[in-house]
Amino acid sequence: MKRSTRWIELSELDVNRAAQRLTFCHRARRSRSTIAIFLAAAFVVFLSASIFAQGDAEFAKANQEFSQGHFKEAISAYEALIRDGRWSANVFYDLGNAYFRARDFGRAILNYERALALERHHPEAMANLQIARDEAGALELQPSWPERYLQIASVNQYSIAGAVAFWVAAFCLAALIFTPRRSGAIIGLLVVMLLVSAGSIFAIWQLERGSKGDALAIVTGKNVQARLATADTANAVLALPPGSEIKVLSTRGDWIYAALPNNLRGWIPTKNAEQVRL
Fold it and tell me: Mutual orientation of helices 105-118 and 123-136 as an angle, nearest 10°?
């Protein structure tokens, strides 16, 4: 019996030591996992910082080329940033300035429009866009009457307003369902929020399909004629100076069918226009 008891005691001691050893190993593995996660996060931060630093250096180089009057080199540098996905309203604005100084008014207007698509109230882009339009004699699309009134805010602002109104309406509806007494104030707030949400959806729909919406394109070619059919020999509908606005309705091969200024429609070669939204 003594041997048996001692064997049990020794076994319990061994078990406790094994448990301690397992706990230590678990802690060591967890510590190594934490270190690995920390090192991975540090690597990601370092890589991101390197990418941003490289982008800033390339942007500074492009600005230097522009300041020295090397506009073609500046254009190449800005466009390289855009191809790499490192664009911003200021990059498009500076690219527009480089094209303007190179006397390519169509692409200057295109990039000013892209800057404004990202930052609606970019005062320098707005001012230079008007100067470029005057220089080129570019034609503009006329917005519909709902679009004129709805342009007080951007699509992003309407999206935020609609989302907030939707969730407030959802909470109001939940309160009406799960509370025994129905408050007139909550019902009124629910109705108002539903109207705001519906109005925001309508505004987004109008702006996205309007003259400044997703289908907006800019004529970048020279001596462009909109035609009645997809042939260079077809009758001309309208002469479109560089920088003129069109709204892409459909495409057929190498031709775009578009809504034109002066409430006209016609076909133009795809190579002579670029959409504002990338």
Answer: 150
